[in-house]
Amino acid sequence: MMHTEQGLLRLSIIVTLVLALFGIGFGLLSGSYSIVFDGIYALLDSSMTIVALLVARLITSSAGELSRARLVERFTMGFWHLEPMVLGLSGTMLIGASVYALINAIGSLMSGGRDLAFGTAIIYALIVVAVACAMAVYCTRANRRIRSGFVAMDAKSWLISAALTTALLIAFVFGWAIQGTGLEWMSPYVDPAILAIVCLIVIPVPIPTVRRALADILLVTPPDMKQHVDRVAQDIVTRHGFMGYRAYVARVGRGRQIELYFIVPTGEPPKRLEEWDAIRDEIGQQIGGEGPDRWLTIAFTTDLEWAE
Q1: Does an H or E element contain 201, and which?
Q2: What is the per-residue pLDDT across 192-215, written as a single tens digit (0 to 9) for each?
Q3: Structural domain range at position 109
Q4: Does 150 lie in the same domain as 262?
Q5: What does each C-alpha distance from 250 to 48, 114, 246, 247 come to in angstroms?
Q6: Pairwise CA distance, residues 178 & 66, whole Å
Q7: 105 and 210 inside one domain
Q8: What share of the chain is helix, strand, coil (3-state, %, to 5)?
Q9: Are residues 140 and 180 in the same domain?
Q10: For helices 149-177 and 118-146, angle between their N-to-C axes, nearest 10 degrees
Q11: What are phi and psi of 286, to 5 degrees?
């Protein structure tokens, strides 16, 4: 069960929620805003993972046993469009939370910093780094077979969490080490300084995901996908003596939407429907990727207006 997309997302939600509550509690106990931010970041991430899990269930159920449910009947074109929306929203919210924390960290630095219990903070950081690294490795390995955008985003979030908490750990160890020395005056600045540094590192990470999601939402045609469809269509035109074709290609989340219109010469001898279907099967095999995530429409017409 844990080797499926939904199973991995459920596991991630449970672990993230536990770590989020653990982080917020430890942050308040130690007086560390960076730990509180770490917990809030995890809580925000888990909420978006819950939404991702719901969307993943909708996408898989639309092609399965729930395909006749009322909700699916209202979305006859499928639920692929929800995936880039969720990924884009998740990335945007993570960026927003990081920017907000960065502003607070700068404000704290300008006001003299804050004191915290470094021993408690170190214990927290060690536990979270171990858990986050384990989850990142587990999700990444499992996703080699699943190839889910949601799981990939979740694995990236675990890596971010591990890197973020590692930075906190280094800072807390430094703060603990300078106690009772001539550098102890730096202690109040350790927490806001490391929070600011971590935010500057974290902010750019979700940007590629947001950019990809925005391209999917706007139905931007992927060049490699279009080139592949063009090669297949041109080969069909040449071998069957068609006058030309029109190809419309888009990627929406995990879904691939392909529409092909072939321009047939007028006055051609009529073909049986089985022959046209055989040509469609030939095109589908050459395009590849047959399955519930491929939406392939193939039409033949003598009127160019129907293809444009």
Answers
A1: helix 187-202
A2: 888 888 888 878 888 888 888 888
A3: 5-217
A4: no
A5: 25, 51, 14, 10
A6: 61
A7: yes
A8: 70, 10, 20
A9: yes
A10: 160
A11: -70, -35
User: Strand, coil or helix: what is 248?
Assistant: strand
Distance between CA 136 and CA 138 in Å, rounded?
6
pLDDT digits (tens, 9 = 90+) for 239-278: 888 888 999 998 887 778 898 999 998 888 888 889 888 9
Which residues of 142-293 form beta strands (DSSP E)?
A: 244-252, 255-263
pTM: 0.68
Let me know whether 203 and 65 are in one domain.
yes
Amino acid at 300: F
Q: Do 75 and 167 belong together in one domain?
A: yes
Tokens matching residue 24? 């917020």
The side-by-side arrangement of strands in the sheet containing 255-263 is 244-252, 255-263, 294-301
Which residue type, as a one-letter code, is found at position 53? L
Closest CA to 139 of 298, 258, 5: 5
At which residue do the structure tokens 């092609």 appear?
A: 63
pLDDT tens digit string along 111-151? 887 777 788 888 888 998 999 899 889 888 888 887 777 78
Q: Based on the number of CB atoms within 10 Å of its own CB, is 150 exposed (0-12), middle (13-18) or buried (19 or more)?
A: buried
Q: Which amino acid is at 159?
A: L
Of 228, 224, 262, 225, the closest CA to residue 245 belongs to 262
